[in-house]
Amino acid sequence: MFRKLKYSVILVLFCVVTIRAQKGEYFIHNYLPKEYNQASNNNGVAQDKEGRIFIANQSGVLVYDGLNWQIIALPDLIPAFSIINDAEGNIYVGADNGEFFTIEKNKSGKYVSVSLKGNLNSNDHPQEPIKQIVSLNGNLYFLSSDKLIEKKGNSYRAYAPQNAFHIRAFAMGKHLFLTDVDNNVLVLDNAVMNYVSNTESLISEKAFFNFRINANTFAMGYRNIGIYKVTYDSITPTKTKFEKWINNSDDELLESEFNNGCELKDGNFVVTSNKKGAFLINKNLDIIKRLNSKTGIYEDNVKSGFQDRNNNLWLATYYGVSFVELNSKLFKYDRQTGISGLVTGAAYYDGKLFVSTDKGVQFFNPVSNMFEFLQGFNKQTWNLTKIDNDLFISTEKGVFIYNGKTIRQGNDKRTFCILSDPYKKELIYTGTDEGVDVYSYIEKKYTYIKTYQLNSPVLSLASDVHKNIYFGCASNGIYYLNYYRSFLLDSIQKKEGLPQMLGENYVFTYKNNLLIGTDSGVFAVRKRADNRVECIKSPEFYASTKSSEIFRAAELEGDLICSQSYENKKLNRIENKVIYITSENGKSYINNEITNKLKDTKVNLITYDSLNKTTFICTDEGLFLVNKQKEKLKRSYNFFLSHVI
Hints:
By secondary structure, the chain is mainly beta. Among the domains are: 11-16 and 333-627, Methylamine Dehydrogenase, Chain H, CATH 2.130.10; 40-160, 7 Propeller (Methylamine Dehydrogenase, Chain H), CATH 2.130.10.10. Helix content is 2%, strand content 50%. Strands 1, 31, 32, 33 and 34 form a 5-stranded antiparallel β-sheet that branches. It has a 4-stranded antiparallel β-sheet with strand order 2-29-28-27. The protein has a 4-stranded antiparallel β-sheet with strand order 3-4-5-6, with no helix packed on it. A hairpin with a 2-residue loop joins strand 19 (207-214) and strand 20. It starts with 10 loop residues before the first strand and ends in an 18-residue tail after the last strand. 45% of the residues are buried. The model is unreliable at 1-21 and 630-645 (pLDDT under 50).
């Protein structure tokens, strides 16, 4: 009813990425000064026990509850330079002029700042900005260049440098390490500042991040000399050893002018920088993701990072705040990453991600973070299929085969889709303008066998547990090769239970069974006594899709992702969306996690890569990737909106 053939405008995009780096870009929302109506410069992020986000801002402290912004002005309108939440979710702020505060609510429920500086003797008052707050052993440490303030419960103690403290201190094990610039590398041990032996070469160097690799090994990032390996001595911390760590990230990180770091709950680490955004690095010290103005954040000058209780990442930047959905099933590649057309297909091949578009074949280069054309291949492409360690490319000009080095042409007939018979690996079926061609592929030799003339374009191919091969036609219902009848060509039409045919019926495999996307929802097939099959409403998915057109669909580890068109009678219009149907214990329900982000996207194809457990959603707007998470996050609070985009 609503279906229109879409194969007239489709893309071939070939993306090459290492499997580790090719899951796609995160969804990012940039909160700019015009939204929160305060100063542009932000320095840090924290979260209270109710889930609200607090941001150290040049105008004071911003508060965001998922819907509304407010400002907590500090005395004399001084800027906030650092912020932290303790284990109980209490918020502490470091500010200009050596001021530091806790944030509380007054009797009327309004947030106010409460100065803590008065807990010190006047001689111990810091005068310089509090640039960092560190939590260690249940205590808090407020650091400025002229003082280190230790807060133990309700008691306070000040430590002073001989020259000046570098504005970063680092917790390693049970000890706090910091540098008295041009004097000593120090460790705080039992309320005494002690010199760390054999660190003379580092007294003029400034470290800006410290990444815990394991209990006794840390990667400390020095701005001018790169990453050092720190072997922590928990018994005698003054014997902690510092030595240069040869790694693959140094050159790029040094060029970025890094300024801070944030450990993530998955064991990776975020390094922020003044010039090149933020970097995600793993414990091998490899850069696994770059977050910058090319990949979605608004500002490349990132001051700090913070992971919230939903495991998402907040970046405080020189111009606004960026929210990065680390804890999401959905990722994307789009025009910002170099995709040059309408995406029609995608596949992992040879450790890389390939996509097809109407402009040709491209691959993703993880170093440049951009898609590049594959050997100048610019033919309109409809699909990509990995077969026998080769990549088959379905195009307007025929089938092409890429072996990782060269591209050769297999035939010159317009081809929309390809299926390798899972039960006879040497057989390949190709959907063409007028039916299906069958080929053998033995020892890399592509040989024509026969044609099934159907007088209709075949836009989808699938197999099932009965070893049948199904052909989804643009207008003539569904044909199939019946395994139980010696592969006799048979069909599924209205009399076999197929709904009224007003367009294409899309065939796909779900848990090795055949499902059909129709104008009336998702249908299945079952074998009859005469060894033919008939069409029935899908027991799992019909209820969630009835009365809507299912144009494309694919599995995701037992769930279903499909494109849906339906009539919105209230607005008197046809609406398109991608729906995610979760199947659990024989029941299914719609999971709205990805729906809003993909509303009104024009879907061309949805496919499932079972090896990498990834579903590709190929659209006019770009390539979207869905990775099913193994465990659902249990939220420990319910105030802050879990989805702020």
